[in-house]
């Protein structure tokens, strides 16, 4: 069986550090995480409308996501506590993560969300030591002294090529 050759492409410019690249690993598990806006922001219906607008090329993901997050009227620390309280992992996640760890398979979370929220949920569900060992590639958050917050995007450049089954567009076209 031939080995898969992965070209060495430099990662895009990022304002946040990248976790280590696991080039020598036989396997790497990538996992995606979602979503706070349905219950505390403008709700499922508006989120679904924005998702369709993204797919139709009417709005960029970045702008839609910013609107979704802006619809949440709660301070950041309260959001973190709500997520820790309400999010439940798939029943087999902890066991699967333990297996990955014992087999030396890196587990990486890739998310458009924010690392402090993801990390808080992980700590609550699998413990601080295991949560700290999981690499997270996501955005960050900026807060002010009043508790107001906004997303800090990993990639400051708005130029993103978006591909999907319906359309192809350059998000920088605006």
TrEMBL record:
Pfam family, one: HAD
GO cellular component assignments: cytoplasm
Domain of life according to the entry: Eukaryota
Molecular function as annotated in GO: L-phosphoserine phosphatase activity; magnesium ion binding
GO biological process: L-serine biosynthetic process
Keywords: Hydrolase
Protein name, UniProt field: 5'-nucleotidase
């Amino acid at each position: 069986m031939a080995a898969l050759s992965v070209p060495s492409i430099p990662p895009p410019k990022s304002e946040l550090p990248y976790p280590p690249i696991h080039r020598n690993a036989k396997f790497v598990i990538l996992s995606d995480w979602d979503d706070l806006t349905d219950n505390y922001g403008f709700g499922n219906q508006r989120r679904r409308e924005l998702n369709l607008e993204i797919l139709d090329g009417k709005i960029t993901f970045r702008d839609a996501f910013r609107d979704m997050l802006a619809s949440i009227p709660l301070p950041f620390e309260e959001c973190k506590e709500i997520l820790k309280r309400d999010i439940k992992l798939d029943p087999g996640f902890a066991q699967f993560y333990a297996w990955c760890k014992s087999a030396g398979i890196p587990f990486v979370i890739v998310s458009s969300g924010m690392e402090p929220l993801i990390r808080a949920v992980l700590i609550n569900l699998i413990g601080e030591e295991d949560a700290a060992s999981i690499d997270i590639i996501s955005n960050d958050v900026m807060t002010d002294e009043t508790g107001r917050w906004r997303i800090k995007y990993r990639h400051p450049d708005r130029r993103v090529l978006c591909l999907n089954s319906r359309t192809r567009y350059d998000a920088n076209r605006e």
